[in-house]
Amino acid sequence: AFTSDNGYMEGEHRWRSGKVIGFEPSYRVPLLMAGPGIPEGAQEVMPVNTVNLSASVLDWAGAHLAGTDGQPFVDAIGTGRGWDHALGYEAYFPSIRNRHDVPGFERGDASAVGIRTAQYFYVRYSNGQEELFDLRRDPVELTSVAADPAYAEVKGELRTLWDRFHQCRGAACDLPLPASLTTDATSTRELTDLMETETARYYGR
User: Fold this and answer.
1) What is this structure's pTM?
2) Distances from the Cα of 2 to the Cαs of 57, 58, 61, 176, in angstroms?
3) In the β-sheet with 112-116, what is the strand arrangement from edge to edge?
């Protein structure tokens, strides 16, 4: 398996440099894999994070590590399942003071916790602010719609997932999406390609 620690900001969203920032250039990294059960030349569009990769390597080896939050994706390879589970995001920003008096941030050092689906990115901060991006309409993540009443239902569903994620442990960190937030492989690929194309166009790459 070949992957990377993190992406890196180089001027996007007015960040001169930096990582662990909740935008696509920072948290999206490559993942190339070869091994038993992986078809040659196949491309998957399902979401994977580092803890799930670790769990999958253990699964391939027939091993188990107690107390881990990751869920293996071995059985999903080649099924074309699309994006049907939420990805969680956590970060620490020295510039955002965590007073531990904002619901969801009472413990720990995280100053940003988010939920990512194929179409939406929802993030809450330890200062009480929140952002919501509709990646189909805003693939470069420029305008938050968190305060838009038209997104109240979507935000409510994402907030429910957020509440489950920020305090999850072990198998509870497996977060299936409701049907309204699930995208099949074709739609997931379209959204992924849209973000790549529009990001390159916007930043002149």
Assistant:
1) 0.90
2) 12, 16, 17, 26
3) 87-91, 112-116, 120-125, 130-134
Q: Which of 123, 174, 139, 132 is nearest to 154 (CA)?
A: 132
Is residue 19 within 8 A of residue 6, CB to CB? The reply is yes
Note the pLDDT tens digit of each residue in 93-132.
878 888 888 988 988 888 999 999 999 999 999 999 999 9
Provide the 8-state DSSP code for 38: -
**Which domains, from first to last, does the chain contain?**
2-203 (3.40.720.10)
Assigned token pair, 89: 């995001």
> Can you tell me the distance from the alpha carbon of 151 to that of 120, in angstroms, rounded to the nearest whole number?
11
Tokens of 93: 């920003």
Q: What are phi and psi of 161, to 5 degrees?
A: -65, -40
